């Protein structure tokens, strides 16, 4: 497994693979890898000739009061996870390598960002779009793999690829969960023992909302009930509990379309997100 830190070397590697007729599977991450990332790597390995994963904590995604400096980092551990999952290259650039100067061009995401996490994290998805645009150019992937745990990010990336005509296939992979249903996340390490016991309530609330929607057509009422449920059963505060169309992330007039049920809950030192997609076909079963 190669560790590449420079843009020039990354581009040379990618161009060499493509010139040899090989496909490239790409797994972009911010490190502190867990089983969710590993699942993306395994799928990329199964579907491509070579696999590249990037580890880069992107400062453009963090607001002034967010956890860029606290974001967990452990490259030795990440290197082991990547190697154990047959990754060919880890692209591990420094911030000054990716952003040597103040940018003269700024990407701005207009749609799919005014709900869920984007509602309170102004500029976050602009940062995501900027770094992914750079990474797509540097890695030149055939396929790019993202976890549905951050379904809003998947929706934004889908729009980025479509609007800017990147020759990249977006592969959205199911959320990987603990045995008790909690979605795998790098931020789970910040939960206290008691909060960790409470955290599975998040996924249970999503499934309960899906059940309620089969009987209750008043979406506002379902959301109110679920906020009360989560805040009663946990010590966290609900940032949002939403039921929206997907991938548009807009208010839904009825339940006869693909919908996302999504929530964010702020615990003392960790903000957790989760979601559940429901299709009309599923509701008919």
TrEMBL record:
It comes from Fictibacillus solisalsi. The gene is panC. Keywords: ATP-binding, Cytoplasm, Ligase, Nucleotide-binding, Pantothenate biosynthesis. The reaction proceeds by a bi uni uni bi ping pong mechanism. Catalyzes the condensation of pantoate with beta-alanine in an ATP-dependent reaction via a pantoyl-adenylate intermediate. Signal peptide: none annotated. It catalyses: (R)-pantoate + beta-alanine + ATP = (R)-pantothenate + AMP + diphosphate + H(+). This is Pantothenate synthetase. One of its GO terms (cellular component) is cytosol. Pathway: Cofactor biosynthesis; (R)-pantothenate biosynthesis; (R)-pantothenate from (R)-pantoate and beta-alanine: step 1/1. Beta-alanine binds at residue 61. (R)-pantoate binds at residues 61, 153. Its main location: cytoplasm.
